[in-house]
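Appendix B. One record, verbatim.
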Amino acid sequence: MRQINDARVAEPGLAVVEVAVADDQTAFALQEVLAMRWATATADRTTRVPGEPGVRLRCYLDRHRTAGRWLYP
């Protein structure tokens, strides 16, 4: 399996989450769990690497905001 690439974010509390899982259903289920907890820019598709098993999904979340509201004014 290839290494997950580093990604840079602009400020503390912002996160890039990249998961490598067996299938699309698992990837989207995990993304949904993250989106229920934090404000999340969700992905609408997964990516596949030819010849490698599984799929990858990348989404972005903001730990300062919960789903649907700001923690800080």
